[in-house]
């Protein structure tokens, strides 16, 4: 069965090439051109396997659409198409619940690879949603995609959720930065830079650590990567 993508894009010069490339790569594509039109599809969001959202639209932003999807507690994969790779845009996308972003101009082959990688990851998560991971003062309910720290449910983006799952599943083990990129983004790691991973880690620490400058859970192992440290209740 072909994966169905809802594409939100108003750039006429880009739309035809995007639809052609995605269709040739085995995806069914439904196009909307405004935030309002995209939001009219949210009641039937389960019909889609992935959202591809332009950031800047005539009547708003793709971030607004993403936030409304996440408020419905929908974990559908979301990729942003953005004209800027500045950190403020990365953070804005992550905070709204996005999984990935790609900066214009981009190669269509790269976009298709990013989409396939994200669909593989989310598919694997869906297949394994059958238990709760408990680790010291934190518990992850895989069925509900919910993380509870010392009795408090964390407000995590989809990407932060996947990162903390990877770390907690490998408690006390050092995971290299390249391994994290390979696991969470793409098998080659070519499409995400270290800056993006640093943003994810910093934002996650702000949500889980008492003092993010002196973390107890998410530990940096200099020269290697990161390690999740079990902290007792």
Automatic annotation (TrEMBL):
Pfam families: Response_reg, Trans_reg_C. GO terms for cellular component: cytosol; protein-DNA complex. The keyword Phosphoprotein applies. The keyword DNA-binding applies. One of its GO terms (molecular function) is phosphorelay response regulator activity. The modification 4-aspartylphosphate is found at residue 54. PROSITE patterns: OMPR_PHOB, RESPONSE_REGULATORY. Residues 130-230 form the OmpR/PhoB-type domain. Residues 130-230 bind DNA. GO terms for biological process: regulation of DNA-templated transcription. Residues 4-119 form the Response regulatory domain. Keywords: DNA-binding, Phosphoprotein, Transcription, Transcription regulation. May play the central regulatory role in sporulation. It may be an element of the effector pathway responsible for the activation of sporulation genes in response to nutritional stress. Spo0A may act in concert with spo0H (a sigma factor) to control the expression of some genes that are critical to the sporulation process. This is Stage 0 sporulation protein A homolog. It comes from Aminipila butyrica.
